[in-house]
Amino acid sequence: MTQRDYWGCVRISVTERQDYKRCHRLWNSVSNNRNGYVKIGPPATALHLGSGVHAVLDAQAKWRFEYEKLWHGGSPIGLEWNEATMSAAADAWCDAEAITVSAAYEAAVGARMPDDTYGILDTSRVMIKALAAQYFNRWGWMNPIAPMEYLHKEATFRVPIPDTEGICYWCKGKGCDRCNGAGHGPGYLTGTFDGIALEETKELWVVDHKTYSQKPDLSLLQTDDQFLAYCWAAERLFEVRMAGGLYDGINKKLPTVPRTIYNGAALSKEWIDTTVAVYKAELEKHGFAESGYHDILERLRLRELGDQTPFHTRYKIRFPRGAFMRFGEYLPYEYRDMTRSDRPLEIAHPLNEPNFRWEGCWDCHIKDLCRAIQFDEDVDWILRSYARGSGHRTVINQELEPTTAQLEFATP
Ligand code: SF4
Ligand SMILES: [Zn+2]
User: Fold this and answer.
1) Which one of 223, 271, 339, 342 has the fewest beta carbons within 10 angstroms of its own beta carbon?
2) Residue 154 C-alpha to ligand 2 middle, in angstroms?
3) pLDDT (tens digit, 9 = 90+) per residue, 17-48?
4) Å from CA of 338 to ligand 1 middle
């Protein structure tokens, strides 16, 4: 095989593609295939909270999945998914996370993580449990995605990208375990989806749980690249047709407690982000009879039944076939551009000069580094607050097995 102008066998993650398309400097800085810079220190609280809620929801899906399999095999397991098991799952994740975070901190800084950081992690633990309980109270503890049913739990995947066969980047053609000794192979798209769900209509959906603090816009989700990437990958992994994605949004917010009015003689009926349970608890606390509050309680109850509440947002996003086709058509171009052989992965991409949008890059986590690069300031000094990942080699550790062979559909 002659060398093409791009390499084969590189694994491109779904999220890395998004960084690449948004800003080459961002991609070049944080991608595991490039410099792999990560900020030293504990994760941002919001991020930590999101991952924790996510982990608990995944634990439930796994429980449900196993339960279903066993049930249909004729031997239901007696275990229940309830407040106690949920809480245990949250604790398990939080404990493991505290160890990982502190170990990473010590490795990077060479000192023990400050005690107040542990305090932050514990505050998140309480919030993770509260948000998860709120989620299952709304959507059900047995099957929160009903009337859909999980066909597959969370899985990491690695799917070959068509038209990307090239000489193996890792061994330069000599043969290694990345290319199964062949010296060449296709590029891969890697990622993780939260689950695959089957609807009564026999349509298949990719499930994505997302915590948010700003309510997502349906029209933006319709063009969401990540969802489409998961669907495209799932079609190849399972050789099925996907209908689209189930956006399962969880607001990182707890109900507001209604206030008393008339010097504590009554509870306010103003339309706030609260729930029937919280409202009733307040009535009881103050000794007010429910009879005077039927109107507001009924209004709250009806709102809670909807797919859109102040705390949860659920959308089914159906992708037209044309969207799948476009995705499959352009993915090889993206891969080939990202792995050009005349641009060693170690050096900066020529398109490293960003386009600074007038809105600013409020959601970019390497703004300080970017500024230093832009103004030709002391970049090395800024980089002291970043750990240098092992660059492209991190991809070897980021082992996402192709799951195709292991996937077995439970029969619900
Ligand atoms: S701050 Fe903006 S321009 Fe700079 S790396 Fe981040 S996204 Fe790119
Ligand atoms: Zn190889």
Assistant:
1) 342
2) 29
3) 999 888 888 888 888 888 888 887 766 666 67
4) 18
